[in-house]
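TEACHING EXERCISE
Course module: macromolecular assemblies
Task: Read the component lines below, then compare them to the predicted structure of the full complex.
Student: A.B.
Group: 4
Components provided:
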Amino acid sequence: MMPAFTKGNEAIAESAIRAGLRAYFGYPVTPQSELPEYLARRLPERGGVFLQAESEIAAINMVYGAGARVMISTSGPGFSLMQEGLSYLVGAEVPCVVVDMMRGGPGLGNIAPAQGDYFQATKSAGHGDGRLLVLAPWSVQEACDLTRVAFDLADRYRNPVAILGDGLLGQMMEPVVLPAPVEPARDVAWATTGAGSGPARVITSLDLEPEALEARNRRLQEKYRRAQQEVRWEGYRLDDADVAVVAYGISARIARTAVDRARDEGVAAGLVRPITLFPFPSQAVRDVASRVRIVLVTELSAGQMVEDVRLAADGRVPVRFYGRFGGMVSTPPEILDQIEQAASEVRAA
Amino acid sequence: MATALTFKDFAGQKAMWCPGCGDFAVLRALQEACARLALPPHRIVLVSGIGCSGKITSYFSSYGFHVHHGRTLPIATGIALANRDLAVIAAGGDGDGYGIGLNHLIHAIRRDVDLTYVVMDNGVYGNTKGQTSPTTVAGTITPSSPSGAVEEPVHPLRLALAAGITYLAQGVSSDVPQLVRLIAGGIEHRGFALINVLSPCPTYDRLRTYQWWRARLVNLDEEPSYRPDSRELAVEAVSSRDASIVGLVYRAPGRPFQSRLPRFRPSPLASERLAPDGERARRILDARYAV
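Instructor-supplied answer key:
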């Protein structure tokens, strides 16, 4: 199949349609507006519903009500507003796909690429004790592929799934092979479909009895344990590595170039790229940390995923961190410099 | 001397809106209005939200507060209730005020908080490059409505009047002198004032240009039979003509939230000495838990 030359935002949108997307609710925010604009054109053609809501708060609650394969997309400021609704979706176990194309923060910040929403995406879906499953693509092709995965995971686990990208991934154009359209077989025994038989279905996240709410929470936690089997990660040049760089998304793209240059200069560097951020590939990081002499984490943030890496490495090796933030993007020479520093640190030891 | 103020005393950073943007006129009118009222910059707090309009706090010299999308009015309310000797002006766009922030507008109106709200209504999301806004006319083609907007627009004047507003005006960016009068009147009004400004977006709205508005607008200020103190006439005007009127639509004696608060003192909270009355607290608690 001929690859299409496509922006990340548009690739996700088209892939969502091909995954059986029926409804999209959202609100314009840079740097992801191409995604809703694409769907505004394409989704109605396919018989789907596109609605630009009056706010992200309204949009996420429309998603809550949709029942069909449904998606919402935003960037940091809107993602914050959606946390309330996401908590309800998680509590009521309603699936959806939410795309966050991260930009510089906090607050209004700016519209340049960043990875500062890692905590918000991976640690808690709004208030309470719920989680999003989080996927982090590093290319337009992978954004396209993981969109399909996201819808399937959302249905399988009846949980919102986040695609965590950044302004660079959303805006950049790359060749992409689009997946063939599918009509998903969905188990919607939970949904209010208007069926006249069987017991009435009530979608709620309310359990006034603590025993019942604890049981609901145990079910959620059991689900997240089961989701461990969905862990995805990729290793690169790790076999004889002394320095393991851990990076996700666009940071991993930059880090891979730096790893290659380090190898050219005789430094045994490799790359661990988490693709699922929740569940986090802790076992993989632990295994790599047992084999290398030092770990370097690099992110477009002041240091967020590094906490999960440190938990996984559990003191086996030193874990260093290098981040750029506020919309600044690190360069391969910067990361190479950090790799060399890490290598000399362990040589001196 | 305060009377010597001119609009230049309120000049902030160089405004970076697109050439021809209606928001330049709103900025100028706001500056002229404050000068006319002899309100020095340090007596004003300007609160703005998100969108092209939200940049106005950078372009206007006063205390400024650039806030979260749609939240200008709750924040302006907080300022007005605490910093009681300042003139509080909120400014934003139609997406900010009539979309994400619409519920706050209704509640600010019913509270009749003493503040002035200027909305730069261009009927389009300019900052995110041209999608529909709450006041986009049905049928308009935009990047988020490629087959034409399906929804009917929000009618801010009708909503405000129905919610019980005590100062309601609409201006247009092509008539700065009238805008100055309307904004100054709103600042002087004791209560909540909404000035909706039809502010063309030459970049993303090819329909509602200055010429387009000029051909349609009726100026209530020049209609001899129109009386802005008549609720009946105001209801008739916004029901039948709504978007095609400019001028002072309605004004009634305000009943500001501030004046209705129990034991409200007009001095700023920050400079108030609120010494805790330990004995009184003790008496209340003792009475509550007395056995």
